[in-house]
Amino acid sequence: MINDSELESEGAVSCIFGLSLLNDTLVGLRKKSYTALVTAVVSATGGLLTILFLYFLWKKSLGKKRAYSENIRNVSAGDGKNDTELPVSSLRSILAATNNFSEANKLGEGGFGHVYKGILNENQEVAIKRLSKKSGQGYQEFMNELKLIAKLQHNNLVRLLGCCIEEEEMILIYEYMPNRSLDKFLFDLRENIKLDWGKRFRIIEGTAQGVLYIHKHSRLKIIHRDLKASNVLLDEEMNPKISDFGMAKIFEINQTEANTNRVVGTYGYMSPEYARYGHFSEKLDVFSFGVLLLEIVSGRRNSAFYHLEHPVTLAGWAWKLWKEGRGMEVIDESVRETCLPHEALRCIHVALLCVQEDPVDRPTMSSVIHMLANEATSLPLFKEPAFSTHSDYKAICSSSPSSSIFSNNLVTISIPEGR
């Protein structure tokens, strides 16, 4: 038999066990409630942050659209239409000319936007440059080209034929160059053979004449600041025409030099004083022309030397061969046997004068043209060129102003800057 004391003891144990279970249940419920609360708070916070981030992106996009629209209004209301002496085309005619900016009509693209081939007035072939709404540099380049090229008239400069400023579109219309740009021929083994020595020398002379014109003989005194093979276009007869004045700077009549805290340009074509200090003058374009001249003579792309297997630059390579009496080896093999040796060697000599370290040691463009055209003229001696090794260029560019922007040889990056 079970006595009363045993029953009381079992009842106490059951009660304690029941209370323990109740306590565990309550603790479990509290933990679940706490976890649910934390989950809800985290989810709500994450959702709020997502909404705020999307709102920020929307406001930023809206700000860009407003700024772009404001730029359009400024150009339309300002001297963009009235002071450029240019015909203004309708957006409808541009869309018809380019088949609504179709991919089939696209010629190329850059920091400014896309370039399309078009047909205006039923039979006029044109190149149509359309400002990208996402372009950080496009508006400044658009205004620069609109104000500059319209006032320049020379056989060796590409002609700006008109513009279109309508709705949210900013468009420049150029003469069409059927042979595209010089680099497409110079550095393509299949096209390279089409550039015999006679054509190359005419391109050299024509480009030099174009640079001299903007330095000395145009209505405006201009420093191009981005002279390179991709910015030299070729017409149907392979005559050169300098293009892309988006980064050009206007000098006053008596001004000889200027400084900027924002260096823009193409790696390998910039002079040392410009790359290092932002100091530029006509001699910046002379330096760029010297690099271009070496590319035309050698058929070698300047940027091809900026790799580990090439410790020297194009200028350093040419100088080394010249110093060793092997100047003929600089000349492109495809024209080495058919060129005029004295003419080709003179071009190399002039090019090495153009890429001297000190701007004072570089010739003016008028002197360049004289030296190229007159075989009887004795040429000055030159020193080792600037940036004769890749490490030289890398070191000098690393000491450039903090806001400096460099690009490869295909696309130039620019930043708006004040004069």
TrEMBL record:
Sequence intervals crossing the membrane: 34-58
Family to which this protein belongs: Belongs to the protein kinase superfamily.
InterPro entries, alphabetized: Kinase-like_dom_sf, Prot_kinase_dom, Protein_kinase_ATP_BS, Ser-Thr/Tyr_kinase_cat_dom, Ser/Thr_kinase_AS
SUPFAM superfamilies, per the entry: Protein kinase-like (PK-like) (SSF56112)
EC number: 2.7.11.1
Catalyzed chemical reaction(s): L-threonyl-[protein] + ATP = O-phospho-L-threonyl-[protein] + ADP + H(+); L-seryl-[protein] + ATP = O-phospho-L-seryl-[protein] + ADP + H(+)
Taxonomic path: Eukaryota, Viridiplantae, Streptophyta, Embryophyta, Tracheophyta
The keyword Nucleotidyltransferase is annotated on this UniProt entry: no
Keyword annotations of the record: ATP-binding, Disulfide bond, Glycoprotein, Kinase, Membrane, Nucleotide-binding, Serine/threonine-protein kinase, Signal, Transferase, Transmembrane, Transmembrane helix
Residues that hold ATP according to the record: 129
Every Protein kinase domain range: 101-382
Superkingdom: Eukaryota
Native source organism of the sequence: Rosa chinensis (China rose)
Gene3D superfamilies: Phosphorylase Kinase, domain 1 (3.30.200.20), Transferase(Phosphotransferase) domain 1 (1.10.510.10)
Protein's name according to its UniProt entry: non-specific serine/threonine protein kinase
One MF term in the entry's GO annotations: protein serine/threonine kinase activity
Any single Pfam family the record assigns to this protein: PK_Tyr_Ser-Thr
GO cellular component, one term: plasma membrane
